[in-house]
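Forwarding these from the shared drive since the link keeps breaking.
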Amino acid sequence: MLRKLVYSSTAIVPSTQANSIQVMKMCNALRRFNFDVTLLAGTFPGKKNIDVFDYYGIENKFSIIRKVTGSHRGSTFLLSLRYYPMLKKLAASSQDILFYGRDVLALYILAQAGREVIYETHETIKKGPRSWAEKKLIKSQNLSKIVFISEELRKAYEEKYGVLLADKKIIVAADAADVPPNFSDSFSLNGDFDFNACYVGGFYKGRGVELILQIASGMPEVGFHLFGGADDQICRVREKSSSNVFFYGYIIPAQTYKVRNAADVLLMPYQKEVMVAQNASETSRWMSPIKLFEYMSGKKPIISSDNRVLQEVLKHKRNCLLCESDNVKQWIQAIKSIKEDKVLYTNIGQAAYNDFIDNYTWDRRGKHILFES
């Protein structure tokens, strides 16, 4: 009989948010390790009938329990509370269950009930009930492991909690990606350009969309293709764009590999301040964007901003080119270098892919967290 694993999250499934990709892909990988996985998540009204396994490109079906929630302030807290009766029942059962997740309130409840838990965190929690629950959880003897997505995040937690973390099993595990289904299926790009730069991701503050528009205006010979953004966000930036910039809107996670296959270069222009959805938090110091590892999986050259935390993975002129986040001329020169130097083009794309295969697949991540620490 497979051991049961319950993954507690407040991610909205399906949604356009990266945390929903992260929890679905992690559960998929955990299923491959022969766990009987159940994901606890939220969903928006009217979305329950969407096949989320097709939406995220996931081959291993696992159990998902989704409670309807909203996007208003406090909805995440209320979603956690709605799972309280179920969690209390699971905690009191005699089943051998591994409790894992990112919902700190849920994990606190389980730890208080005497269950061992693994807590994964992607940002510091500054205030409110989640901050209170996190401190209680970190003090608990039932917290078996705490997982950070970057060394910078680990340092931030050590600054915050100090000696409370001294006796905890700490794991640093960057985010990850799946190996693409193939490298041949390709998205049909607009325009008729010999060289195409692609961006896949949000249009939130700090993601660098405005920088791409500035780069594009200085490189009329290159096509720039932006995948992502809500309709209103696209409308705001479209009027500032030149004729070689094309907007495609959001593309479901299962199909993004086709964009990478179509690209000649992949852009990751994070700015000095990077916001998540609804400007809920700023993550530039410790982020580990899934986009980075999905880009690496595509065997295409990557140009990225030189944010310190990204350099835990990226090395200039080895597996990418790094540019100052606000230096338009430097970005233009980097794209020209890749366009004109076929050896550079091939070498950094292949090096990124090799690093991805060795270190940043979801299977590699799951194995590191569960079995190597």
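-- next protein --
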Amino acid sequence: MNQLPTPLSDDEVIHISVGRVLMSNPTFKVGEFLDALAQAVSEQQGEWSDECEDWFGDGARCEVLRFGNQGWQRGRIRIRLEFFPENQKLLQAERPRQDRSGGPRDRAGRPSRDEIYSRREEVYEVYREDDY
């Protein structure tokens, strides 16, 4: 049975050993990541207000023009993290590519960033084709 992505709550814990952004520690809570993201955005933003915080909370008021709808739709938009559980079929599709990649590696023997991202897209493509 395939599972759809689910939003993570602020107190759930994530461990990311490779490809972290914003966080120096590989293990952190979702809320800590969203706070770091809000902080990074606020440092780049000239005027930070309570309305900007809505992106990370209840949602910022907006209008969206979506495919298949007639005209603009009013609502709210917010930033959240979603978790995509791996299934056995997905893992089996990824393992052979890792074993025979032969691409450039860093000093620790890990694949290059470009190779990681290209393989990630291949795996997501398999996931999208099989599960939706």
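The chain has two domains: 1-84, 86-132. Helices lie at 30-44, 50-53, 88-99, 113-131.

- D.
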